[in-house]
Amino acid sequence: MDTLPPDAEDLRIRTRDFIRSVVMPAEPAPGERLDETTLGRLRAAARTAGVFAPHAPKDYGGQDLPLRFWSPVFQEAGYSLIGPTVLNCQAPDEGNMHMLGLIGTEEQKERYLRPLVAGGVRSCFGMTEPHPGAGSDPAALQSAAAKVDGGWVINGHKRFTSGANNASFCIVMVRTPALDASARGCRPSRGHHAAGGHGCPRRTHWRPN
Ligand SMILES: Cc1cc2nc3c(=O)[nH]c(=O)nc-3n(C[C@H](O)[C@H](O)[C@H](O)COP(=O)(O)OP(=O)(O)OC[C@H]3O[C@@H](n4cnc5c(N)ncnc54)[C@H](O)[C@@H]3O)c2cc1C
Question: How much of the chain is helix, strand and coil, in % rounded to 5?
Fold first, then answer.
């Protein structure tokens, strides 16, 4: 992409300035972690500067940047190791916000998207499974969800679930009865599942909220 439209270029430049002038001077020393007080101060400054959550819907506290312009703005955020965390555009939260914005119900958006964009919670994304389950190809998904009274029951084993230990909820990719007859791929649905756990969640008869 050679040039950005004026709004996206303006956000890129402001993000670039913010990262260099506000975030980088506050980076923790090598080997130390970013403390919560500093993170809160930097995020408040990012909101004031209009660079917080660039990819998220404006109604939820983001900057409404269209998907095709995420990359140059995220590159500016990533110039500092703590930049994506400060701007709340780090993986997997940024993708989960995007998905919730696209396919979430209003109730799901209020319950999951709003606190995620605000930076009050973290999320995770459960796709990868042990062999012979899914890696990059969702057609290999082994985990399955079955509809029961009042919700779904999920059986499956996920691994490499980044951030699962600190996540308030997990968006889980599973096979549903409607897809059982086909191995052609996946179709995101409106199912959503609260979870905690670690980086290798195994759930048997897991009944989500
Ligand atoms: C730091 C880190 C963080 C991660 N975080 C997460 C996470 O948060 N959530 C999560 O779900 N996973 C996560 N993963 C797992 C990561 O997404 C997996 O490595 C990936 O899903 C597996 O894809 P792959 O291409 O590496 O391997 P594979 O899926 O085993 O594929 C290996 C190769 O075979 C090819 N291939 C695969 N299927 C086919 C096919 N049907 N036909 C032809 N070629 C094929 C692929 O293109 C690839 O070249 C993480 C991994 C790392 C290292």
Answer: 40, 15, 45
- What's the CATH number where 176 sits? 2.40.110.10
Cβ(166)–Cβ(91) under 8 Å? no
Residue 64's closest CA among 113, 8, 118, 24? Answer: 8
The predicted model scores a pTM of 0.84
Nearest atom within ligand 1 for CA of residue 164 = 8
In a domain, 110, yes or no: no
Per-residue pLDDT reduced to its tens digit, 22-62: 999 999 999 999 999 999 999 999 999 999 999 999 999 99
In short, whether 176's Cβ falls inside 6 Å of ligand 1 is no
Q: How far is CA 176 from CA 3, 153, 173, in A?
A: 43, 10, 10
C-alpha of residue 176 to centroid of ligand 1, in Å: 21
Question: Total domain count for the chain?
Answer: 2
Query: What is the C-alpha separation between 113 and 122, in angstroms, rounded?
Result: 10
Q: Could you identify the atom of ligand 1 that is nearest to the CA of residue 134?
A: 29
Q: Does 184 sit in the ligand 1 pocket, CB within 6 Å?
A: no
Atom of ligand 1 nearest to the CA of 126: 11
Q: Ligand 1 within 6 A of 167 CB?
A: no
